[in-house]
Structure formats: C-alpha cells, structure tokens
C-alpha cells in the first residue's frame, strides 16, 4: 500500500461525510418547516389575538365607517390568509367578534 492510496480513501470519506451532512440539513429544514414559511396554530392564534386587540378598540365595528383591521375578515387579510386551515380551531364560539370577546375576557354585548 503506497502513500497515495491512503489519501484517496480520506478524500472519499470526507466527500461522503459532506454529502450525508448536506442531506441531513436538507431534511431538517424542509421537513421541520422552520425556514419554509409555514405557520403553526400558535402563530395564528397570536396573530388573531393581535387582531382582536386592535378591533376591540373600535368596539368591533365593521364596514366602511368601522375600523376592523384591514377592513377585512381575519382569515382573508393579507397577513393571515395562511391561517385559514386553522379557522375551526381558532374560532370556537361562532363569530370572530364573539371569539375575540371570549379571548379578551370581555362581556358579550
């Protein structure tokens, strides 16, 4: 066995190691959803509570003269349209207005 044979074996091992690391990193990032732009139910709930806080200042008025955030329903707004799959888990009390009141511990009107 010459001196050059050992070096080729190390190079092959390093290349295979790098390939395995790249594959593991790809699986971690693609399957984990951390950097892929996906949202979780908790993220949507946080967005919904922020929406409710802003909307409660307006006394839950909607329409042209109201100040519903973005003048749109929460699940059609540009910042929360990805939360549509979680709508049934977020809105449990019937209407968004009733759900906001429940989440913010406000009495029903």
Account of the 3D structure:
This protein is an all-alpha fold and 109 residues long. It has four helices and no strands. Helix 2 (41-57) packs across helix 4 (96-103). The model has no long low-confidence stretch (mean pLDDT 76).
How are the SSEs placed, and which strands pair?
Blueprint (H helix, E strand, L loop, with lengths): L2 H30 L8 H17 L29 H4 L5 H8 L6
Helix pairs in contact: 2-4
Give the integer mean of the pLDDT values. 76
| Fraction in beta strands | under 5%
Helix content: 40-55%
Number of helices: 4
> By helix and strand content, what is the structural category?
mainly alpha
* Extended strand count: 0
Instruction: Give the termini distance in whole angstroms.
Output: 88 Å
Radius of gyration: 25 Å
Order of helices and strands: HHHH
**Poorly predicted parts:** none
The largest sheet is:
none
